[in-house]
């Protein structure tokens, strides 16, 4: 079966797509502090890597194998990123500055399950309201849409917090009470 040139190219391509996808997921898990899951995935990853590289090195006279390896690597990066987007591990913190202080944006966001802290702020052009919103990453895009719907001119900056400790919102997440029954609404 491996004698067939087209079959070999397809096998090398698929192996590298799978390998790089595992690599991407392992790196993300490592950055998120999930070391045991990352270690387990790395064991699978290295076996796939050795098999794929071995096939290429055993057949270096076949340039199509090297090309398949490189193309598979590139596609694997894209596939790994898509998988990570679907997993959406962790949380996102979004800082929002609204032009109108008297808007009821914090209340509307809290009713949707987001953790919101707000305070008065002063900008170059006058009074503003600043909000800091915590959300699971899987609801990130819906949060942006909600903010833009409620205040189309809001200034939004987002980042991933490294550590979260305390507060009622974190306790609700751990108990599984946040966003229950609101999967389509959030």
From TrEMBL:
Record's keyword annotation contains Transmembrane: yes
Topology with respect to the bilayer: Multi-pass membrane protein
Location of this chain's protein in the cell: Cell membrane
Lineage top rank: taxon: Bacteria
Residues covered by the DUF2179 domain: 114-166
Residues spanning the membrane: 6-29, 36-57, 63-81
Boundaries of every DUF5698 domain copy: 24-81
GO cellular component: plasma membrane
Record key words, sorted: Cell membrane, Membrane, Transmembrane, Transmembrane helix
InterPro entries named in the record: DUF2179, DUF5698, UPF0316
Stored Pfam families: DUF2179, DUF5698
Family: Belongs to the UPF0316 family.
Alphabetical list of HAMAP family matching this protein: UPF0316 (MF_01515)
Name under which the protein is recorded: UPF0316 protein EM808_20620
Biological source species: Niallia taxi
């Amino acid at each position: 079966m491996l004698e067939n040139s087209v079959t070999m190219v397809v096998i090398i391509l698929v192996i590298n797509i799978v390998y790089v996808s595992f690599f991407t997921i392992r790196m993300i898990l490592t950055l998120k502090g999930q070391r045991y899951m990352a270690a387990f995935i790395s064991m699978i990853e290295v076996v796939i890597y050795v098999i794929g590289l071995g096939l290429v090195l055993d057949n270096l006279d076949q340039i199509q194998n090297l090309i398949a390896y490189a193309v598979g690597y590139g596609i694997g990066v894209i596939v790994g990123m898509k998988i990570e987007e679907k997993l959406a591990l962790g949380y996102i913190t979004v800082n929002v500055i609204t032009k109108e202080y008297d808007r009821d944006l914090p209340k509307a966001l809290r009713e949707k399950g987001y953790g919101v802290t707000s305070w008065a702020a002063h900008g170059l052009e006058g009074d503003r309201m600043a909000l800091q919103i915590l959300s699971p990453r899987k609801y990130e895009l819906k949060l942006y849409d909600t903010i833009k719907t409620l205040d189309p001119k809001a200034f939004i900056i987002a980042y991933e917090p490294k550590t979260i400790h305390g507060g009622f919102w974190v306790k609700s997440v751990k108990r599984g009470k946040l966003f229950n029954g609101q999967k389509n609404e959030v």
